[in-house]
Amino acid sequence: MSPKLSLANESHDRRTVFLDALSCVARFGMAFVWIAAGVSKIGDRLAVTQNIQAYDIFTPAWSDILAQLIGPAELIGGLLLLFGLWLRPASKVAIGVLVLFIVGIGQAWLRGLELNCGCFTPDEAITNYQLQYFGVIVRDLVFIALSAWTIWRPFTKLAVRP
Hints:
InterPro entries: Methylamine_util_MauE. It is built from five helices and no strands. By secondary structure, it is mostly helical.
């Protein structure tokens, strides 16, 4: 084998390892995010309902329905990523949900509402809501990027049905 060909193969192998590592971080990182968010909401329906009502978008009845659904839905999404079930569709749904979260946070910020985002714990304390909103939106954009990476290049090792 010529030295040039050997270097090209070595470079390709390093690139593949790097891209696989990024894909692994994206998939399992987002699995952890969704599982943590879902588990934090299950069993505390009242606090989740109050957080949803604070956004001043939904009626109390719809807020209660969403509070019952959102925790289990996030948990299921995280488990799909963790076990490698339908990685691309699960990531597409995740992006849709994250966009809706960003819209909700953005409208609350624009309207000057001081509320608890309720993302990972139903009783997160707010100190500076302006900074918190910006940080939550940036964080969700990073989550969208990780989910998009999983769509583009899913980490299929250890996947049941990628």
